[in-house]
Design brief:
The protein has about 240 residues and is of the alpha/beta class. The protein has eight helices and eleven strands. Strands 3-2-1-4-5-11-10 form a seven-stranded mixed sheet. A two-stranded antiparallel ribbon has the order 6-7. It has a two-stranded antiparallel ribbon with strand order 8-9. Strand 2, helix 4 and strand 3 form a beta-alpha-beta unit.
Length: about 240
């Protein structure tokens, strides 16, 4: 893993723009849809410690720390880890890949993947690693883009000439692929995978699904609320490791 190109999916180059746009408030998906449910699910079992895989600039690690959870963040992008450590000097942040965690077995009560699965190449290895470092009885909390969202994203919006309705055509849903996306100075590759791909891998890792939702926005401008309800693009789920 050491010889892997850290910028093969664009995150190394895009890190400054991402850090500048995210801040403590986060983007729309985090601030208005996911933060509430991710924090509720992360704290309800009172974990002593947590591993945030794909922690980026460390925003969710700081949120966990504010709730008395000792959080460790891991991310392959050096600039993200440096910023996370700068903003949270008391935290532990590690430069590394989800597919090969340099962490002992059964080390954490909670593992978090907050919009990170779409960035991981070897998803089979990554989910296996998540299960390996999780304590028996512990939980994995996941937020991810929905499969129909990632499938339709490369095609953009379409307008129905008869009704003016905004449409989003679904692409080749069952075909896994990586596409480039660009917004606000960020240019990265994200993976499209059907939902069944993730579900099968978590089940194969011996985990039990204990929660699933496609949460609605709980705040934000009305036009964004209306647009989201027309085309929801986020999901959250929780998996437990048997004792």
């Amino acid at each position: 893993m050491k010889n892997r190109d850290p910028d093969e999916n664009g995150w190394e180059t895009s890190a400054p723009a991402w850090i500048a746009r995210t801040g403590d408030k986060g983007d729309y998906a985090r601030a208005h849809v996911l933060d509430k449910i991710m924090l509720e699910r992360s704290t309800q079992h009172h974990p002593k410690n947590a591993l945030d895989i794909g922690c980026g600039e460390g925003r969710f690690c700081r949120m966990l720390a504010q709730n008395d959870i000792v959080a460790t963040g891991i991310d392959p992008v050096a600039a993200m880890i440096e910023e996370a450590q700068r903003l949270h000097p008391a935290g532990t942040y590690i430069e590394g890949y989800a597919e090969h965690l340099d962490i002992p077995d059964e080390s954490f009560d909670l593992v978090v993947s907050y919009l990170a699965l779409i960035d991981i190449d070897d998803i089979t290895a990554a989910i296996s690693e998540m299960a390996r470092v999780l304590n028996p009885g512990g939980h994995i909390i996941v937020a991810n883009l929905t499969g129909f969202s990632t499938s339709s994203a490369p095609y953009g919006k379409r307008i129905c000439r008869e009704t003016g309705e905004v449409l989003r055509p679904i692409g080749t849903y069952l075909e896994e692929r990586r596409d480039w996306f660009e917004w606000d100075g960020v240019r990265v590759q994200n993976w499209h995978r059907p939902l069944s791909r993730y579900m099968k891998l978590f089940l194969q890792a011996g985990l039990k699904l204990s929660y699933f939702d496609e949460p609605e926005p709980h705040s934000g401008p009305q036009d964004r609320l209306d647009a989201y309800r027309q085309m929801p693009f986020l999901m959250a789920m929780e998996w437990q490791k048997p004792r």
